[in-house]
Amino acid sequence: MAGVSETNARTQILATQRNDDSFSTLWEELEWRGLIHVSTDATALSELIEGEPFAYYCGFDPTAPSLHLGHLVQLLLMRRLQLKGHKPLGLVGGSTGLIGDPRPTSERTLNSRETVAQWVDSLREQISRYLSFEGDNAARFVNNLDWTAPLSAIDFLREIGKHFRVGTMIKKDIVAKRLNSDEGISYTEFSYQILQGLDFLELYRQYDCKLQSGGSDQWGNLTSGTELIRKAEGGTAHAIGTPLITNSDGTKFGKSEGNAIWLNPEMCSPYTFYQFWLNQADADVADRLRVFTFLSREEIADYERQVAEEPFKRAAQKRLALEVTTLVHGAEATQGAIDASEALFGRGDLTALDELTLAGAIEALPQAPGAAGAAIAQLMVDTELVKSLGEARRAIAQGGVYVNNVAVTSEDQALTADDLLHGKFAVLRRGKKTLAGITA
Fold it and tell me: Motif 'KMSKS' region: where (predicted)?
């Protein structure tokens, strides 16, 4: 659980967040920020958002011990709606997490009930960092295991299953792809869209929940809920599908693709997280600022100008990395990541870095094992800073090799015990920018 100081820091971050009042409606701002990829009736949604407070939800399945970058998009959308006065429901899928939504390529590995229960607790703690649980529109947690566990198979088929048509279900993109693959799809994963539809129906009944958000790749599951509410209750509900965050070749960031940017610092260190944002391409950075920060339209326009006129300063990337890393990991960890970044490249004191921060920085570098007495030239080969011992010796002779930012003066120089920071780590550098880590 978060300590008192961390809770206070989170409260302070939430207190600084604002929607941009230069927009006539929140819907207009959400569209400008690129947070709306697809939705039900846009006019009706804009009117709903500008009207009286209502409940809305997003679901987070515990299919891993941490949330990732895609989930952060949802949390920021939820926060913007909460700032407008509406009431967020954070659903952690204690039942759907036991199944998992269909993946594009293969069947999921089913996790044990005990593991899923642990991950439910972990995700609840993470979600609580991004929403306010105080005031008239305080956020609330719900768990779909509460209404699915008591439901018998017969009741599920009679009361819920009767509203779904198989022809419609198999036309959903993800299901159609799996049906046409060699792997096929099990009934377990095929039924996921019914369970997600049931979630929306139950929240509609219990809390008068009128909106669900999710990634645009979940659109079929989102609309299964709006259709179920229409058929079972004769009611109207809405859905928003946010854009997927992709890398430069169009690949989605996520756990299924093996390139997830996790929000848990034990799975993605604050240093690695900070560097991810710092390394955003000039063509992408303005879009990232719109989606992932609370900077105003005017501020973002100024950073767009700076990217166009002075791209070498990377001012937009630095602000993006500062804002998002502070949001996720807090100001202290962010400053540690900045200090590590400066120190690694010779602009700061490596010995001043605490062990956790230095470990996170080393983790992001090419690495090799080493110990006191190991020849630095050989370590350069082991870490692939050079291809051969001859190349290593030439680089040392030319004065371009450093251990912990101290120049290596002899081709035969060896690592010493004093070189091992915290008794564990050393940083090799060739030239100004090529780095590697040594771990004892």
Answer: 252-256
